[in-house]
Amino acid sequence: MNKTIEKAFFGAFELGGVVNIGFDWMRQKYDLGFKLSKEDEMQPSKALPNGLQFYYNNTLPKRINELTSNFDTSVLDDIDSSLMNEIANNLDSLTGKDREAYIFSLLKPFKEYSDNVHPIAVIKRLNGEVNGICGIKDFERDLAMWENMPPEEPIKNICGEASGTPREQADACRKAIEDYKYRIERANYIANRYCDLLGRFEDGAAWMQEGTAENCISLFFRIIYVFSNRLDALLLERGINLLWYQQESGIYLKWHRCVTDLEPYIGSLELVNKYIREALPKLDEEQNHSQRVEAESNAIINNSHFSVNKSYEEMQRILTALQQQGFISTDTTIETFYYRMTGQGTPTSNKIEWIKKGKKNNSSISKRSLVHFVETIVNFRVSKAKDCTNRIEDIFGLSLSSSTINSTAVCEYEAEIDNIVEVKNNS
Fold first, then answer.
1. What is the pLDDT of residues 402-423, one digit of tens each?
2. Band (293; pLDDT cuts 50, 70, 90)
3. pTM score, two decimals?
4. What are the angstrom distances between the C-alpha of 152 and each of 156, 163, 176, 315?
């Protein structure tokens, strides 16, 4: 196998590469490191020694810029990508376990990116969903056992030594559950912060300013995004399911497959869907998924979603902004929002929870702001037509009166919504 281009490309993401030191720099500057518990988070930050502070303030940003300027993006960005051609030739020369091992090797350099940006595997481990790793489910099982024992009865460990009481053991389980739930919250917080810091469009954003370390790291996030789609397309054309390899390895280049992102590399949406249906191996949840999706799709009529033409990542950023400003409940998941607004992803009957109260009448939900949001992002006029009002009620669970629809008054949240949506439209 020839790995000349591959080796140079992946070097940026491995230990000592520009992305690796970029994560180190981001953790230090924006406090994105791992915390064990809420108590750990509350501890005051310790000042770095002067030499180390200079290293993070000056040496590392310069090194990140230098390595970024020397990185050859053309091997991936060119239509006839030399990197993807090399990978395709290697894939086609292998079979069986050798081919499987090679595909896993293509994911290995992105472990740090996966844990920080798409922490699916991190959360599974903390929940106790990975064999051999203790998590919340294990602590909950042990808690139930200790709670069923006499609380003050002395217990001994396997060596015959005193080991507290069932009450103390139960308290320890509760604390472990609390700490692990905090770590899950922390993992999600870190992932969202990277999304904001390296991709959120707002005036003065560091990642949008050429020459900043954030701008360099954001470039590599874009490169990973492109690589994940090109690799996914390449594998699908060979009947191989990248999402299964991500699940098995715990390394996620992407946590969702968007068919429109694959269309340029495969040729048409119809071909993308055909290859996805045929790709093997299937994910665990896909074994019985096809029948369930078909049944749900038949039950969910066409007016159950809009058809906004935006990627999963763009919709995730919009949802985050809407939730941060109190327009949509934090209980609304990205999966629900993405399907309901674009028609892509897994069909669902869950609603988008619009919760913004009016500025003047803060006792009721501002339905006028919902109308403005829909008209802005979907780019169509909300009318009294039954199919239109039914669609909004099915998606948001809110009915609109004629006075709301026909109102000519300026939406009281127009500026806020336009800033969230239209900036994305211009990006």
1. 777 777 778 889 989 999 987 5
2. very low
3. 0.69
4. 13, 12, 20, 53
